Each structure stands twice: as C-alpha cells, then as structure tokens.
Amino acid sequence: MSSKMHQKKQRRTFLKKIYFFLQNIDTKIRIICYYIKRKFFIKEEFVEKKDSVGPLDKVLPNNMLKQLRLQRFSKIFFNMAIATSILVFIALLSSLITPLLYFFALVVLIIVVMGLIIFTAGAAFFMPGNPVGIVWGLLSGLVSSGESMSEFVKFCFNITKWISIVGIVLSVIAIVFLSITKSKQKFVVKIIVLSILILVLGVVFAFQMLTGGMQ
Amino acid sequence: MTKLDLEFIGLKNMEGCIVVDGKYVKLKKNKEKTYSCSVETDKKQVEVVIYKTHNYFGKNWFWWNLLYFVISVFGLFDVRADKKCLVLDGSFNISTEQDTKVIFRRLDFEEGARFVEVETSSEVEELSNTQYYDKEAKARHKKMKKFKIATTIIFLALIITLIVVL
Q1: Which of A122, A132, B2, B103 could form a disulfide with B119 if both were Cys (CB 3.0 to 4.6 A apart)?
Q2: Which bin fits B92, alpha (ψ -120 to 50), beta or left (φ > 0)?
Q3: pTM for the complete prediction?
Q4: Mean pLDDT, to the nearest integer, of B139-161?
C-alpha cells in the first residue's frame, strides 16, 4: 500500500510540475502578447492622437511644397552630374595611364625575368633536381597577362565613352531642374560648372569617336 | 513706393525658405557672412515668412521619399537629411510706410522658444516665431532609414544571386 501511495504522490507532484510549467509558459505568452500589443497597437493609437494635434498637420502652402521638392530633385541631379564627371576623369586617366603602366610593367617584368633566369640557372647548377620547368611555367603565366592589359585599355575607353554620354544627359537634366526652381543660390556658379562639365564631356566623347581605332 | 531692407544674421542655407509678400526672395551673401535682400512695395504692411522644414511632410511623405531614394540610386546622390528634423516657423507683419531696415538675428536653440529676434525701427507684428524638433518626423526618418537599409540589402542579395545563377 505504501508503495502505491508513494506512486500516487509521485504522479501528483509530476502533474503539479507540468501544471506549473504550463502556467509559467502561459504567463510568459501573456507577457509577450502584452508587450506586442503595447508596442504595435497601443502606441499607434497614441501616435495617431499625437499626430492629429502635432506640427506635421500644419499645412504648408502648395507652392512651398513644390519648391522644396524641386530643390531636392535639382540637388540630386547636380550631385549625379558631378559624380559622373569625376568617374569620366578617373576612367580617362586610367585609359591614358595604362599604356604607361604597361610599359613600366614590361620593364619590371624584364628585370624579374632576368633575375629569375639567373636564379634558376644558379639553382639548376647548384641544386639537385630541376626547378627550371616550374619557374618557366610561372613566367609564361606572367607574360600572358600582358594581353589582358591591352584589353583593359580598350575596356577603359569604352567605359569613358558611355559614362560621358550619361554625364551629358544628367547635366542637361540638372540644368533644366535648376532653371525650374525659383531659388537661385549659387545658380550662376552651378550653371557655369554644369556647362563646363558638358563641354568637357563633349570633348571626351568626340575624342572617343575620333579614336575609334582604339576600340 | 517704399523700400524694405532685410538682413539675416546667423541663418544659414535659408535660400528658398524666405517669402516676402507671397514671393520668394533672392538672398545676397555679404562679407560678414550675413544674408540680405531688399524689396520694393506699395503696400503699407508686408508679410515676411521664414520657414524651414524637413523632408517628411505631407500625406504622401513615404512615396515621395521612396521616389527620391530610387532616383538618387539608393540614396547615393541624395541630399543629407537633417536627423533632428528641425523646424523653423516664423511669420511677421512689418509696416512699410517709410523705408525700413529689418535685422533678423538667429537665437540659440531652445525647444519651443523663439528662433529669431527682430530688430527694426518700424512696427512689427509677430504672427509666429517658434523652433522645435519634430518628433513625429524623427520617427518617420527612422522608419525610412530602416526601409532603405532593408531595400538595399535585398537588392544586393538579388544581384549577388543573379550573378551566381548566371
């Protein structure tokens, strides 16, 4: 009997444990639900009430709204035009410098090759085995990279051409937006900058067209 | 016809934010880093409005900001937004029976306090003169920022997956 009683007691305690565990989960879920409710629903209601009397409800005049929007658009397009001009210069510079780089790379390569030949000759002479084959393999890899450099020059020229087209279009859009906006802060300066930009980009584009043989 | 000279001290980047008699005025930068303009009028009283606001106004604030975000190539070429969302709201009626000079001197920031001190010999009626950080606009700014970050991540992920797949 005592063992049965003991078993019953054990069961009860086990069931109690489960009950408390579930209750604990239940309270935790309730707490989470409460927080979700407070975070997403109660606060929203509060915000809506606040919004209705808040400063955002102050109606701005229609022309002021238009003015602010146009100003922002003109600033965006101006930034874009300037960024494209910088890109054009970088691309142009890289396409002009790369042949020089190619020349210097060749000089460096010759020096390295000479050094390696001396080194491999020395190694072949003094060391057992034949490391010459490995070194020549490496050298052939280096020499073949020279072809990809000329490809890179062509790529740079192509990129410059396309960026200059985009730059001209963006500059024109920026000028149109600047002329629409009534605020004329540094207007003349901006127009001059954009005009020079168009001129430079036009020259670059013309140069690209003339040196079509490079592509 | 009387002449009204306006001078703004301590007010930077206010171009397109100053309206005199319903018209935007062109400001001239002086050597002392002040801005000035002069207006000629026949009226006895002229309304001067100085208003600076954030980019989160209007009903369709989200869609407009989304448009700016897309056009400016994921915010790369966009204008830096004012995180604090400062609003300056000033409107003054200035009598112009004779030639007058009005100086608007910027005051230090204090929530809800006046933002500008008007110095003039003629009569001035202050209709509004307050400065405050717009809390609701700040919340909108945060929301927009989260949305922008999420969109950029999704876009980058899409590009990477496209590159990997192709």
Answers
A1: B103
A2: beta
A3: 0.54
A4: 88
